[in-house]
């Protein structure tokens, strides 16, 4: 019987160790959401249409080809590369996302320290007190009391609630990491789009100025004809109206250009009044001839927003484990060792030693349904996160499908507009020759010049849209963050691919 009583502490220790190896609640697994084999219902062509007159060749869809980490370099613009580099360095938005990530990392360290390790506290106290003489202890007395001790306490994580809590904080780090990547991608894409928009607006303004010159010349001719009685006042008023409408269209273009420049300044961390931005033109940007398109099965691992949504789902799963563990007993061990005396000269001798050791068990018995309600709430939050994850995946596939079709349509539209421009230019050349021979009037020549410039505006707008949709495709595919060496998620992505 005596030997059995000696074994009791060892049995308790073994039981505690075995219990510490388990964790209640579901173990998280990445969602296995079935994805289609194609982004679009109808198959895409191998390449888009081309517009030779605009020096815009067909873009080839390179399926199953990986996207580079610095995808904007595919536009082959040194000015654009410098602009994005400055934006990634100086943008407050990206700095805020980085700070949020650091905060999550420190939060994990804090909670891990409180859960995985015992709390050790040193305590020094000095006081003066008086004992009542009316007590049974004897006559009243006044004395000093000194205490120096070290206390240790530790709550055993028997059912894994603490580990689930750490797991939730780690999932929060994953979430903030992918939010940072999404912010990084959005910032780069916004700078590229703004640069393309600026190039488009500048060319539209230049063409509009040429139209204004042609219409002003035509108005001058018509006014002279009116003075000579060759035309009616109605024709003069009609030409004045057309000139005024063209002038009215110039102001919004100039306004959009200024606002676009202001947006570019803020995106790169500058004040709008600094005026240190380069000027972009469509000729300075090269349209990528090859479009890397990831396999649909890889999209869910590459889109930062999907991975962030998955991290939130992981966090919700861990929260279920935490609320489940709160239903079970919690055992806390505590111990203390120190010295206590009425004077400092005898504080640290052998007679002043004090110590204590104890264990406490907390088992919820009745909490008015609080704990079970919290667990059901956590399960509902998990279901909500799962539904939001599915919605995020569906939206991601829609983004890629939309932009793929947009690229195909943009190319066909550019081809048609380029053909219209070519026809208008041919007509202008013919009329110029006829004018030199005296076969057509000067107003007819001016009209031909104006019509040609109007077709140029249409071509510029469609060409810019093709450039912007190309950048949108790279953004929709995830931006290639897994191929960027500077990201801490790169190694994790490679590990996941190897496990698959």
Q: Quickly count the domains.
A: 1
Largest sheet: 4 strands, antiparallel
Report the average pLDDT across residues: 88
Structural class: alpha+beta
- The tally of helices reads 10
Rg calc: 37 Å
Strand order of the largest sheet: 2-3-5-6
How would you spell out the order of helices and strands? HEHHEEHHEHHEEHHH
CATH topology: Outer membrane efflux proteins (OEP)
**How much strand?**
5-15%
Please, what is the CATH homologous superfamily?
Answer: Outer membrane efflux proteins (OEP)
- Give the termini distance in whole angstroms: 56 Å
Overview in brief:
This protein is of the alpha+beta class and 500 residues long. It is built from ten helices and six strands; from the N terminus they run αβααββααβααββααα.
Please explain how this structure is put together.
The protein has 500 residues and is α+β, with helices and mostly antiparallel strands. The protein has a single domain, classed as Outer membrane efflux proteins (OEP). The protein is built from ten helices and six strands. The strands form two sheets. The protein has a four-stranded antiparallel sheet with strand order 2-3-5-6, with no helix packed on it. The chain is elongated and about 135 Å long.
Which features characterize this protein?
elongated, two-stranded parallel sheet, alpha+beta, 10 helices, 500 residues, four-stranded antiparallel beta sheet, Outer membrane efflux proteins (OEP)
């Amino acid at each position: 019987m005596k030997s059995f009583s000696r074994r009791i502490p060892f049995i308790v220790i073994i039981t505690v160790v075995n219990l510490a190896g388990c964790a209640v609640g579901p173990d998280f697994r990445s969602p296995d959401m079935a994805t289609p084999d194609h982004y679009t219902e109808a198959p895409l062509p191998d390449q888009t249409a081309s517009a030779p007159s605009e020096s815009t060749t067909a873009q080839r869809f390179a399926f199953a080809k990986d996207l580079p980490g610095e995808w904007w370099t595919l536009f082959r613009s040194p000015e654009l590369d410098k602009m994005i580099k400055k934006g990634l360095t100086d943008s407050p938005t990206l700095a805020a996302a980085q700070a949020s990530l650091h905060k999550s990392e420190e939060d994990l360290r804090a909670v891990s320290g409180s859960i995985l390790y015992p709390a050790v506290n040193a305590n020094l106290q000095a006081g003066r007190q008086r004992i009542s003489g009316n007590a049974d202890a004897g006559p009243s007395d006044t004395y000093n009391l000194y205490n120096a001790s070290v206390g240790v306490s530790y709550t055993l994580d028997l059912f894994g609630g603490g580990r689930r809590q750490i797991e939730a904080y780690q999932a929060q780090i994953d979430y903030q990491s992918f939010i940072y990547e999404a912010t990084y991608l959005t910032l780069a894409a916004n700078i590229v789009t703004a640069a393309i928009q600026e190039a488009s607006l500048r060319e539209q303004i230049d063409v509009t100025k040429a139209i204004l010159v042609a219409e002003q010349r035509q108005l001058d001719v018509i006014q002279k004809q009116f003075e000579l009685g060759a035309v009616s006042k109605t024709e003069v008023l009609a030409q004045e109206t057309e000139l005024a409408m063209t002038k009215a269209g110039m102001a919004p273009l100039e306004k959009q250009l200024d606002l676009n420049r202001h947006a570019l300044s803020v995106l790169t961390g500058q004040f709008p009044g600094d005026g240190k931005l380069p000027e972009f033109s469509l000729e300075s940007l090269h349209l990528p001839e090859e479009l890397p398109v990831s396999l649909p099965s890889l999209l869910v691992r590459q889109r930062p927003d999907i991975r962030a949504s998955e991290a939130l789902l992981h966090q919700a799963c861990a929260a279920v484990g935490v609320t489940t563990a709160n239903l079970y007993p919690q055992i806390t061990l505590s111990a203390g060792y120190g010295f206590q005396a009425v004077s400092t000269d005898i504080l640290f001798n052998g007679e002043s030693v004090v110590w204590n050791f104890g264990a406490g068990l907390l088992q919820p018995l009745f909490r008015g349904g609080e704990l079970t309600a919290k667990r059901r709430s956590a399960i509902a939050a998990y279901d909500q996160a799962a539904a939001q994850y599915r919605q995020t995946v569906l939206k991601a596939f829609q983004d890629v499908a939309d932009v793929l079709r947009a690229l195909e349509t943009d190319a066909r539209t550019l081809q048609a507009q380029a053909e219209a421009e070519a026809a208008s230019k041919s007509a202008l050349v013919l009329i110029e020759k006829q004018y030199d021979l005296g076969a057509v009037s000067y107003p007819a020549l001016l009209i031909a010049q104006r019509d040609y410039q109007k077709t140029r505006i249409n071509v510029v707008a469609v060409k810019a849209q093709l450039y912007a949709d190309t950048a949108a495709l790279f953004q929709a595919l995830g931006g290639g963050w897994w191929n960027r060496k500077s990201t801490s998620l790169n190694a994790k992505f490679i590990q996941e691919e190897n496990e698959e």
